[in-house]
Design a protein that fits this description.
This protein is α/β, with parallel strands linked by helices and 300 residues long. It contains eleven helices and nine strands. The chain is elongated, with a radius of gyration of 22 Å.
């Protein structure tokens, strides 16, 4: 079968299973499968300036799709396609997710970083600027937010906590990839408890899915992503409340707290933050869809 035929066949299988963007998903899985299966082979598909280990670029994919797909690449594609048909997230199959311009390793030990969380990074970078501030992330997961901040804020010092030792393994792997061990410390523990001093900025993207909503999530999320990284209790705010009992001891006067929140939660979170940080000033930042996504509070 040619590259075009395999791509179209995979797209038709995915479309029949009700998976959106079926042809794009088929392309991504096929390019990855060729990289996986052919990295040690001298396949004609890899005749380019790129090395086999770099995989099949998108330009190569569309310019060479009348070439035959080698048997090993086809076998790998069938395996990966079947995983996706079972609704395993593509990011877990690829073991890769792009976040704020960085490529991160992800697997089932961690929640897959979402595009909307990039807004949390963006607002934190705006606050820090060129200042050598201390920044803390609570509940880092794969390390996406903390690593993006450390990468883009060379003068800042950063700490990040994670209660799951398995997730922390993934975060350490991503930290090594970007050589940030000298400026980003990863600590195991619950939220702010591992920190023994005050910082200038605390950021967090905590579990905020309501218990009643868990079963209605897409199967990619419900059946594959770690439940503790999603579930936030009856109203989705249990973990936020726990964080807010700790924040006054860890945030400097004049410091900032930035929280990502779920749809319809900004007003309730604002009230909780005011109760924890009396007299604070609060801003709410909407994402591109108009959802109030980030609650920013400045401690008096």
């Amino acid at each position: 079968m040619t590259l075009r035929e395999v791509w179209q066949w995979g797209g038709s299988r995915l479309h029949a299973a009700g998976i959106p963007d079926a042809l794009l998903e088929s392309e991504i899985l096929l390019r990855h499968s060729l990289s996986e299966g052919l990295s040690a082979l001298r396949s004609p598909i890899f005749r380019s300036d790129r090395t086999p280990s770099e995989g099949l670029s998108r330009a190569m994919f569309f310019s060479r799709w009348d070439e035959q797909v080698p048997p090993l690449g086809l076998r790998r594609f069938r395996v990966n396609l079947n995983r996706r048909l079972k609704r395993e997230p593509t990011a877990y199959i690829l073991r890769h997710r792009e976040f704020y311009g960085l490529g991160l390793f992800v697997d089932r030990r961690v929640l897959i970083p979402r595009p909307e969380t990039e807004l949390l990074v963006e607002k934190t970078i705006e606050l820090v600027g060129e200042r050598p501030l201390r920044v803390m992330e609570a509940g880092t997961g794969c390390g996406a937010v903390a690593i993006a901040l450390a990468h883009h804020l060379p003068l800042a010092r950063l700490w990040a906590t994670e209660i799951s030792p398995l997730a922390l393994q993934v975060a350490r792997r991503n930290r090594r990839r970007y050589h940030l061990g000298h400026r980003l410390r990863l600590l195991q523990g619950d939220l702010l408890i591992p920190l023994s001093f005050q910082v200038d900025i605390i950021v967090a993207n905590l579990p905020y899915v309501r218990d009643a909503e868990i079963d209605g999530l897409p199967p990619e999320v419900r059946d594959y992503e770690p439940r503790p990284a999603l579930a936030g209790g009856p109203d989705g705010l249990d973990v936020v409340r726990r964080l807010l009992t700790q924040v006054a001891q860890r945030l400097k006067p004049g410091g900032w707290l930035l929280l990502e929140v779920g749809y319809g939660q900004a007003k309730a979170v604002t009230a909780l933050v005011r109760g924890a940080l009396g007299g604070c000033s609060i801003d709410m930042v909407a994402d591109l869809a108009g959802i109030r996504r980030i609650v920013m509070a400045k401690r008096p």
